[in-house]
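Late entry, evening session. Most of the bench is empty. Finally got around to the prediction I had been postponing all week. Sequence below, unchanged from the version circulated by S.P.
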Amino acid sequence: MDVPEYTVVQGLPTPQQYHDLRKLANLTPPNRTMMLEAVPKALANSFACFLAYERKYMLDDTTPSPNQEPVAMGRLLGDGALFLQLCDVAVHPGHQGKGIGKRIMQALVGYIDENAPHAYVSLVAEPLGQMLYPRFGFEDVKPSIGMFRCTPIQSNPDFRKLREEKAAGMLRSTAVRPE
């Protein structure tokens, strides 16, 4: 898909750009401690990362102008051969619905096909992305289920409360109603 007003280039966002894109795209942004310690290390250890920029502000086809902010990103993690995880696909809300997410996905899948064609690529799809990923060959893992472990998130009282509310709502919606 060609979206001429944007260009997608391989590169890493700054930790602040990473934070801001995740927050704007309604993904959980890293907290202050993570921004100082974990985010720089995580970005540096990416297998691949692609960023989208508005073409009109680019210096050339691959060079954003100074202080130009990316409008989208997508990242791959993993061992580079057998196992990869696709993550951080985020598009700035002011640029959504223009095919940029598809362009980021094309870049990521193309990179996988070229550099790790035997890899098992997994992802956790947010509700908005659940329609996008199957277009690129991703399938539900049922009967398996996805799981996570992240002590800072799981120990947060707000997170636990939200999980309990969700579980209670799911139980109510699946309960057998008398006729």
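Two things to note before I forget:
The radius of gyration is 18 Å.
The mean pLDDT is 90.
Will write this up properly tomorrow.
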